[in-house]
Amino acid sequence: MVKKIALNVFYNLAIIVSVIAVIWCYNNQKYLFIPLFLASAAFFVYVKIQLMKEVRKNLRK
């Protein structure tokens, strides 16, 4: 369970960093990198949702 909590913290930090990077790229007119950071944020949101589903499933058992 500690591993899953650590993964959750990592995913949260990765999502926050990705969103901040998108904002920074937009403000500094670095439009080429925005899709990269949006894709990485979407990936980490997807993985986080999968982790939450797995934790809920394990808690019900």
SSE layout:
Layout: H1 2-27, H2 34-60
Question: What do these coordinates show?
Answer:
The chain is mainly α and 61 residues long. It has one domain (2-60). The chain contains two helices and no strands. It has helices spanning 2-27, 34-60. The longest helix has 27 residues, at 34-60. The model has no long low-confidence stretch (mean pLDDT 95).
Number of strands: 0
Q: On the 0-100 scale, what is the average pLDDT? A: 95
Number of helices in the DSSP assignment: 2
Distance between the termini: 14 Å
Shape label: elongated
- Percent strand equals under 5%
Computed CA radius of gyration, to the nearest angstrom: 14 Å
Uncertain runs = none
Structural class: mainly alpha
Main β sheet profile = none
Question: Briefly, what is this?
Answer:
By secondary structure, the protein is mainly α. Helices cover 87% and strands 0% of the residues.
What distinguishing features does this structure have?
0% strand, 87% helix, mainly alpha, 2 helices, 61 residues
